[in-house]
Amino acid sequence: MKEAFIDVRAWRQFVAVAEELHFGRAALRLHMTQPPLTQAIAQMERSLGVVLFDRTRRRVALTPAGEALLPDVRDFLERAQALPARARAAAAGEVGRVRLGFVSTIGFERLPEWVRDFRVLCPQVALELVEATGDVQRELFARGELDAGLMLHSPGFAPPGLARLVVAQEPLVLALPERHALAGAPRLDLARVLAEPLVIFPRRIVPSLHDAIFALYHAAGRVPVVAQEAIQMQTIVNLVWGGLGVAWVPESVTQFRREGVVYRAADAFGAAPARAPARAAKAAAAPPLPVCETSLVWPAELNNPALARFTDFVRERSAAG
Predict the structure, then answer these.
(1) ∠ at Cα 19 (18, 24), nearest 5°?
(2) How far apart are the C-alpha atoms of 255 and 110, rounded to whole Å?
(3) Which of 91, 174, 188, 290 has the smallest set of CB atoms within 10 Å of its CB?
């Protein structure tokens, strides 16, 4: 059986008659004459195959079917009236959905603040958060299942084919067990550090940063001894605690406090004490440690107004520091 199509005007006529329970008053309210209104209601009933009003010479009353229908029709008309404003809001990026991938390092501080503040600014934009490493995010982009992503990489090595905005740059720091002989040293000997077993993420996760860390070892004439690979930074730190080795992690990871693990920054690899001979001090100076960037990336052909609103928001927040 073919479903009847009833237009919005007819439903407004039904509500007017249902509320007035008088065809004459309903017609005045609708700025029309009574005969066309009576015909329109009769046509609606024929189309639905349902009697909505009991009519006598003295009174008009809703049938049980009409009474059951009235709340739903009121709700429908209210939502229909809101559609133009909602369409304009969607076009302005004030309504919609953004599927956002993110790496764990950005989730320690910046991302929670951004999500909180963006929800205040655009409460009708749904931010769907997907924690995923860079390789997984690239797959999701390829399948059209991600609108934007926050990815970790070496400076200038964001994935090709995506627009990007650098939102953070930070140095790598060394994570090592608290009980390790080097943990309490006032100054770290890079050669000794590079001789330690290494806990690191697989290359496929962040190729550019993985290569930068290996380049540090190769520049010192060493080959990294990889003791264990792990995907998540928290897992890497936990493996360091377990004594499997040391790890180079972004500085933001230091906010993940793991009892039994200490973090040493680049300044721990400073020159030898001032009283040492100049030649020794020069030899002891450590090369610059790798740094990493986090970028917001999204498809170059941006056709999601809500995403455009979010990227503008992140750009403003990043510029403000």
Answers:
(1) 80
(2) 12
(3) 91
Contact (CB, 8 A) for 140 and 130: yes
Contacts of 213 (CB under 8 A, 6+ apart): 172, 200, 224, 248, 290
pLDDT digits (tens, 9 = 90+) for 87-145: 776 666 667 899 999 999 998 878 999 999 999 999 999 999 999 999 999 999 999 99
Q: What's the pLDDT at 2?
A: 56
Question: With contact defined as beta carbons under 8 Å apart, do 162 and 141 qualify?
Answer: yes
pLDDT grade for 4, boundaries at 50, 70 and 90: low
Q: Considering only CA atoms, which of 132, 25, 9, 148 is closest in space to residue 81?
A: 9
Name the helix (H) or strand (E) containing 248. Answer: strand 247-250
Phi and psi, residue 221, nearest 5°: 75, 25
Residue 271 has pLDDT above 50, yes or no: no
Q: Is 217 exposed, middle or buried (0-12, 13-18, 19+ CB in 10 A)?
A: middle
Residue with tokens 């024929």: 46
Instruction: For residue 280, name the pLDDT band (cuts at 50, 70, 90).
Output: very low
Cα separations in angstroms, 232 against 76, 200, 205: 48, 10, 10
Distance in Å from the first CA to the final CA of the chain: 63
pTM for this prediction: 0.70
Tokens of 240: 């360091």
Q: How many CB atoms lie within 10 A of CB 27?
A: 20
As a whole number of angstroms, the distance between CA 306 and CA 243 comes to: 46
pLDDT > 90: percent of the chain: 68
User: How far is the C-alpha of 133 from the C-alpha of 106, rounded, in Å?
Assistant: 11
